[in-house]
Hints:
The protein is α+β, with helices and mostly antiparallel strands. Helices cover 17% and strands 21% of the residues. A four-stranded antiparallel beta sheet has the order 1-4-2-3, with no helix packed on it. Strands 5-6 form a two-stranded antiparallel ribbon.
Amino acid sequence: MNHIHNFFPVKGAAITGKITIGEWIFDTHIDATADTKDLRYSGTAIRLPLQDGQYYLISGSVFNDGVYQYRKGDTAPLQEETFDGVVVPLAIPKPFLSLVDEISEWQAKNGNQGAYQSESFGGYSYSRATNSKGEAYTWQDAFRARLNPWRKMA
């Protein structure tokens, strides 16, 4: 998602401003009759409309920046802190998640190929595929065309 500059945010669902992460779990039930200034927060939870298995993004944090998956009843795997930032529910398409799995498999198989393009010694010679710049072929090269439909400008 960093590479394509697209996190698939749910429009209008972001929580922005000063956010305190403590020992809380997400409260996905919002009581519209509650007497509170901002229904997105309770005493012990950030209230987001998250479904079990849905992903969310934290940005602006020193310790917790990143994408996490919500599991109902689990405590968030986050470090306690207060920061000015954003927490956003994400709507990641299933085909994109499948592509992420394929990329992970490709990386596990091909790994970090390093900076060297070829080597030879004795009767042995070895070279790797390179991209259009003459650099080692990466997952970004291998999956560029399939990632392009989801790409956003930076």
